[in-house]
Amino acid sequence: MKKTVLITGATDGIGLLAARMLARKGHRVLAHGRSDA
Question: CB atoms < 10 A from the CB of 32, how many?
Fold first, then answer.
């Protein structure tokens, strides 16, 4: 089941890693950060 996920702090570190992993698994990822990631 695909889910929509909002991740804050997705510019780098754990937030970026989580966004990439969830996107790879087919989830819709909305990523927010201080700069373009």
Answer: 13
